Amino acid sequence: NGWPEDESIFDKADAIVFYMDGGGGHALVQENGRRLKLAEEWTKKGVGIGCMHFGVEVVRDQAGAQFQRWIGGYYENMFSCNPIWEPKFTALPDHPITRGVKPFQVKDEWYFNMRFIGDIPGNMASQQGDLKFQPILVAEPSDAVRNGPYVYPAGPYPHIQANKGRAEAMMWAVERPDGGRGFGFTGGHFHDNWGNDDFRKAVLNAMVWLTKTEVPATGIESSVTAAELDLNLDPKKK
């Protein structure tokens, strides 16, 4: 857990995924920019970068531009929002990440209104300069979700309410001009959600795709029991 003491484990990595605390405490922004420079070198070599849940959040002036280049966007405090809700992912694009994934619905802390590259809404495929952007999991928040009932810091946020009726991307993928790939996934707050086959498969597919390995036609098959989900959990801090 956390940043490895031996950074040589990164040397032969085809892809690196960050699923950890973010914001000002994000592992990539520590050490006065040294780690960001290291990650920049990875991407120049075509290494894939993935960020999940809190790991998609960085402080704009610390790493916002880098995250837009590497994965297409990031969570910006007071611009993005983090309600707990249950979106229905019914329209899945034709993409390797969605192979074998069936429409699903999962209650989670699904962030939305990311600060995407070019300030695009992120709900449609687009070309942003040399970067190819593809939304993967898209759903339309209800008015009630946009109004609350839970975001932190406390809402509602007028700019979120102003976009009522707009579909939002909660997972997206990019192909970078350096030849590398990136993805962002805003779910992953509730650990038990990894027991949902389609939720889990979308992320497993994304990790495989990130390495430039062919995703099988039926996606990455896996199974997990409730007991297995309870293994190796970190002690919950008070």
Briefly characterize the structure.
The chain has 238 residues and is an alpha+beta fold. It has helices at residues 34-44, 60-71, 143-147, 158-161, 197-210, 226-229, and strands at 15-19, 48-52, 73-74, 84-85, 88-89, 104-105, 108-109, 115-116, 126-128, 131-139, 168-175, 181-185. The longest helix has 14 residues, at 197-210.
Structure description:
- The protein has 238 residues and is an alpha+beta fold.
- 21% of the residues lie in helices and 20% in strands.
- The model has no long low-confidence stretch (mean pLDDT 96).
- It has a 6-stranded mixed β-sheet, with helices on both faces.
- The chain has a domain at 7-85 and 107-189.
- It has helices spanning 34-44, 60-71, 143-147, 158-161, 197-210, 226-229; strands spanning 15-19, 48-52, 73-74, 84-85, 88-89, 104-105, 108-109, 115-116, 126-128, 131-139, 168-175, 181-185.
- It is built from 6 helices and 12 strands.
Q: Determine the number of helices (DSSP H or I, runs of at least 4 residues).
A: 6
Q: Indicate the low-confidence ranges by residue numbers.
A: none
Structural class: alpha+beta
Assembly state of the chains shown: single chain
Largest sheet: 6 strands, mixed
* Average predicted local confidence, pLDDT: 96
List keywords for this structure.
6 helices; alpha+beta; 20% strand; single chain; 12 strands; 238 residues; two-stranded antiparallel sheet
Draw up the topology in text.
Layout: E1 15-19, H1 34-44, E2 48-52, H2 60-71, E3 73-74, E4 84-85, E5 88-89, E6 104-105, E7 108-109, E8 115-116, E9 126-128, E10 131-139, H3 143-147, H4 158-161, E11 168-175, E12 181-185, H5 197-210, H6 226-229
Parallel strand pairs: 1-2, 2-12
Antiparallel strand pairs: 3-8, 4-7, 5-6, 9-10, 10-11, 11-12
